[in-house]
Amino acid sequence: MSTRKTIAVIPGDGIGKEVIPQAVKVIEATGVPVDLTYFDWGADRYLKDGTTVPPDGFEILARDFDAILVGAFGDPRVPSNIHAKEILLGMRFKMDLYANVRPVRLLDASLCPLKGMEPKDIDFVVIRENTEGPYVDRGSITDKGTEDEVAIQEDVNTYKGVLRIIRYAFEYCAHNKKADGTPRARVLMCDKSNAMTYAGGLWQRVFKELSGEYPQIKSEHMYVDALCAQMVRDPRQFDVIVTNNMFGDIITDLAAGLQGGLGMAASGNIHPGRTSMFEPVHGSAPPLAGKNIANPMGAILTAAMMLRHLGFSREARRIEAEVLDAIRQKRTTQDIGGAMGTSELGDWIAKSKFIAHVGDPDFHDGAIIRVTSEADQLLVEIEGFSGAQFSVRFDGVKSVFSHKPEDMTIDALVEMEAPPPSRRFVFTNSYEPEDEGGDAYLDITAENLSVKKV
Ligand code: NAD
Ligand code: IPM
Ligand code: MN
Q: Ligand 1, from 46, 282, 300: best to mutate by most atoms within 8 Å of Cβ?
């Protein structure tokens, strides 16, 4: 079994305080060995005692935690947004979390505002530089308040900063597959080098330099304005996009729209080998706060991303499968057409409990050898990782949905909610980004099951 991991949880402001508890419920429901510690950083704390980040705050996070789970920062009572700057941008900059990884995945066709898009069509990732650009907030104002006022906002791009983020994108492309198991193959660099020639020139040169090191990966380029148009015209063309801090911010809100809106989008702020931070892409949405209507799926998918980063890919996959199941069953919040409350949806997703180790721990990483049926029985024969065989018999079968079940590698048997006396069992696919394939499934509604080692 994996060793325990420690997670710092910072819900923050507004809907951050509502969606993060749902992500935590779901993490806990998986039974993953983690210890959570809460931090009250955010607007309330700032308004109470003036603290944004306590002394040594970032050192504590980096030293004592394996990962950080964050909600959002932003509160109308703090118009300067100083706490958000010091906490959120503080973590990104001071902990040097240079790669902001924002996956853009359409989970279900019903969520996409574009006609005819299927999940296989939208599965790309934006790698956003996270420590430079105009976000360093360097600049000056002269002649303030006069007609001669000039405000200068500097866009800082260092060779080392540009090099490491573009390298991250190529490495990401080389080592990650799409959800359907096909390899990633293209890195597209997005800039505005036709107008911003100093910064753009550096990005162009570094991109060219690194492209040569990855001959197996196709390198492409688009200006950011053209990219925005393409993203809504035909997002199927994108694979890995690498860009600077500000363009990355903007295009990932646009890309969130393709996935069903800001409530669906997840992200990780990563420095390989260091304590990394995970947060939904959305903000604190003050108009939604306190109403139990915010969509928790972005935060829940962010939790899955964090668990995968910590080595718990099985639990991450399970969470993703449960979110997808909720979408398919129209168990959603109102932003994507449902009627559930934030907290009720969190409960529902967390309730799809996992039947661990049915019969034997060896049941994990097994493969389905044969599926046979007779009258209202279904027999699933499984070979475990060690070669041991199991037969799982379902009685009183009402329905079976399956796709290539006999080629399927399984890692778990999950029980989903079903109206009693029916029970619903789903074999989850042990798809890993590094593995081949991944779209097989076997979903059975029956009255009972029994497991025998044969
Ligand atoms: P926002 O992401 O909070 O909201 C933008 C729109 O998306 C709103 O219409 C909102 O209702 C909707 N939305 C966002 N999350 C949703 C969810 N989970 N479910 C349903 N609908 C959702 O962005 P904003 O309105 O521009 O900013 C509000 C505050 O959040 C500001 O203070 C901003 O600075 C801050 N902010 C913080 C972060 C962060 O901490 N990571 C990110 C973005 C914005
Ligand atoms: C995001 C947010 C932040 C950003 C804000 C709150 C500073 O929009 O995480 O996308 O611009 O990076
Ligand atoms: Mn943003």
A: 282
| pTM to 2 decimal places | 0.84
For ligand 1, residues with CB inside 6 Å are 15, 19, 72-74, 81, 84, 88, 262-263, 279, 282-288, 294-295, 298, 335
Residue 359 phi/psi, 5-degree rounding, is: 85, -40
**DSSP notation for 259-290:** TTSGGG-EEEEE-TTS-EEEEESS---TTTTT
In the chain, the domains with their CATH numbers are 5-134+219-348 (3.40.718.10), 355-453 (no CATH)
**pLDDT in the model for residue 182:** 93
Which residue owns the Cα nearest ligand 1 atom 16? 263
Contacts of residue 226, Cβ cutoff 8 Å, sequence gap at least 6 = none
**Predicted confidence (pLDDT) per residue in 203-253, tens digit:** 999 999 999 999 999 999 999 999 999 999 999 999 999 999 999 999 999
Q: Is the dihedral of CA 192, 193, 195, 196 positive or negative?
A: positive
Q: Which ligand is nearest to the CA of 89?
A: 2
| C-alpha span between 280 and 247 (Å, rounded) | 18
Q: Is residue 430 very low, low, confident or very high in pLDDT (cuts 50, 70, 90)? A: low
